[in-house]
Design brief:
Strand content: under 5%
Order of helices and strands: HHHHHHHHH
Oligomer: single chain
Distance between the termini: 29 Å
Radius of gyration: 17 Å
CATH architecture of the largest domain: Orthogonal Bundle
CATH class of the largest domain: Mainly Alpha
Number of strands: 0
Number of domains: 2
CATH superfamily of the largest domain: RNA polymerase sigma factor, region 2, helix turn helix motif
CATH topology of the largest domain: Rna Polymerase Sigma Factor, Chain: A
Helix content: over 70%
């Protein structure tokens, strides 16, 4: 199996669409999962934003400076696309209805059983209670496994700000989940 660095080299030097397809296949689930959480379970919007992420990645791959940080770079692109999309939505004063039945239909199962689906749905509801910055930091660390340093690179926030958002966000999530019947030791993302 070729490494990301080898595939990136093929894309940059040879313009290999096949190598880029392999990079997309390797990282699309993580990028989509990240965007799905940022969009509070809106699968269609997450798919559109993920597609835009990979289009911009293809266009900007030559500007990638740290080859070993490819996924961090992708998350950064995805985050910026999400922020731009949020600004456009706010600027046009378009309101999105939050019909709980529609939200339930949008929730994707991340695991094999009904309990996992319900837990993920509750986590999505809890994530909706966070500010955009808190939600982004919590999703990147707790779900995507990114370090504080990488979250800082992805979002452009300084590391102490990331830590503050993580602290507040995790507390809000824990309070919401505890209030809704989850045991502190049983709740994981």
């Amino acid at each position: 199996m070729l490494t990301d660095i080898a595939l990136i080299s093929q894309v940059v030097t040879l313009g290999s669409e096949r190598a880029f397809s392999l990079l997309v296949e390797r990282h699309q689930e993580a990028v989509r999962r990240f965007l799905l959480r940022l969009t509070s379970g809106d699968a269609m919007r997450a798919d559109d934003l993920a597609q835009e992420t990979f289009i911009r990645a293809w266009q900007g791959l030559r500007s990638l400076r740290r080859l070993s940080g490819f996924q961090t770079w992708l998350f950064s692109i995805a985050y910026n696309i999400f922020i731009d999309d949020e600004r456009r939505a706010q600027a046009s004063a378009t309101t999105r209805e939050s019909d709980s039945d529609a939200t339930t239909n949008e929730v994707r199962a991340y695991g094999p059983d009904a309990d996992t689906v319900l837990i993920n749905h509750d986590i999505d509801l809890a994530l909706q209670r966070l500010s955009e910055a808190e939600r982004t930091c919590v999703v990147l660390q707790c779900i995507e496994g990114q370090s504080i340093r990488d979250i800082s690179r992805i979002t452009g926030m300084n590391e102490n700000t990331v830590k503050s958002h993580l602290l507040r966000g995790k507390k809000t999530l824990a309070d919401f989940l505890l209030h809704n019947g989850y045991d502190r030791t049983a709740t994981t993302m």
